[in-house]
TrEMBL record:
Superkingdom, natural source: Bacteria
Bilayer topology: Single-pass membrane protein
Protein name: Prepilin-type N-terminal cleavage/methylation domain-containing protein
Taxonomic lineage from the root: Bacteria, Candidatus Saccharimonadota, Candidatus Saccharimonadia, Candidatus Saccharimonadales, Candidatus Saccharimonadaceae
Organism of this sequence: Candidatus Chaera renei
Localization (cell): Membrane
Length: 154
């Protein structure tokens, strides 16, 4: 008589555990990559907005001989539309904001843009036009809201 060996078909528990661990690792990588996508897009919009604002401020400087003060200027849509004609008014609205969110601060939140005008030394705040320099500030969402700075060309 021949002895037949019965061989079980299927996977061992070790093989199943290895497959589950690999799937878990891949799922974590995919989810972490996907989760940062929208924040990167919002940061890209912030940078585009800041560059647009800075460009229009440089044009304003070449036409008037200085940069504007903050109060009643960059915080006011009407003034911006009359004096920074090439600037899309939405550039003053960070992502997910519906109103002008400019603040006179070097520490804006991710929902604000900051603007400060300075005298020629670049340190003393400018309260009367023409101002010699400016700095634009925004918080980079993908870097734990680290504040970024763009300075005037002057």
């Amino acid at each position: 008589m021949l002895k037949q060996t019965i061989r079980q078909k299927g996977f061992t528990i070790i093989e199943l555990l290895i497959v589950i661990v690999i799937i878990g690792i891949l799922a974590t990588l995919v989810l972490s990559t996907y989760a940062s996508g929208p924040a990167k897009a919002r940061d890209s919009k912030r940078l585009t907005d800041i560059n647009s604002i800075a460009t229009q401020l440089e044009i304003y400087n070449s036409e008037t001989g200085g940069y504007p003060t903050f109060t009643g200027k960059l915080d006011t849509d009407t003034w911006v539309q009359q004096n920074l004609k090439g600037l899309d008014i939405n550039a003053l609205r960070p992502p997910n904001q519906t109103a002008n969110s400019m603040v006179n601060s070097a520490t804006p939140t991710k929902d604000q843009y900051g603007y400060q005008a300075f005298q020629s030394d670049g340190v003393t705040a400018c309260t009367a036009e023409p101002c010699a320099k400016f700095k634009l500030y925004w918080a980079k969402e993908t870097a734990n809201n680290a504040v970024q700075v763009k300075t005037s060309l002057q």
